[in-house]
Specification:
The protein is α+β, with helices and mostly antiparallel strands. The protein has a single domain, classed as Gcn5-related N-acetyltransferase (GNAT) (Aminopeptidase), CATH 3.40.630. About 30% of the residues lie in helices and about 35% in strands. It is built from 4 helices and 7 strands. The chain has a 7-stranded mixed β-sheet, with helices on both faces. Strand 4, helix 3 and strand 5 form a beta-alpha-beta unit. The mean pLDDT is about 95.
Length: about 150
């Protein structure tokens, strides 16, 4: 297992990976929500954010991302692990990588997830995020970060 920062040669594979994981969880492609995947560099690293990939034998098995919202705030998102690789610490490692980046560059992090994704919710709560709102099947979290 190797965690790397996004580079352009992974553009197509990263987009397909995320959409495949979403499909496997019963979520279809949403042109509005998933438009960031069309231009990962332009939506993440080129805008003070980050996009991370977990590689195993050259294949993407996990992702996480940090999206710039404003000079103090980011959103942690695109936190996915391939189904057959879950339960092996990959998700925790990917989330930690994104959280470390957030802590180095922002003073507040937000995130949201579907209310049915109990494992993800547990990881967020264990990492100091608080639920700030719930509605329409979505849970919204926030955390004030110590460093910047």
């Amino acid at each position: 297992m190797k965690i790397v920062s996004f580079s352009p040669e992974y553009s197509s594979a990263a987009r397909l990976f995320v959409l495949d994981v979403l499909s496997g969880e019963g979520f279809g492609y949403d042109p509005l929500k998933d438009s960031d995947l069309v231009d990962i560099p332009g939506n993440y690293p080129e805008k003070r954010g980050a996009f991370f990939l977990c590689l195993m034998n050259g294949d993407i098995v996990g992702t996480s991302a940090v999206k710039y919202l404003d000079s103090d705030t980011c959103e942690i998102k695109r936190f996915y692990v391939r189904k057959d690789c879950r339960g092996k610490g990959i998700g925790f490692s990917m989330f930690q990588k994104a959280l470390e980046y957030a802590e180095e560059n922002f003073t507040r992090a937000k995130l949201k997830t579907d209310s049915t994704l109990k494992t993800a919710i547990s990881i967020y709560l264990k990492n100091g995020f608080s639920i700030v709102n719930e509605g329409g099947g979505t849970v919204y979290f926030e955390k004030y970060l110590q460093s910047k």
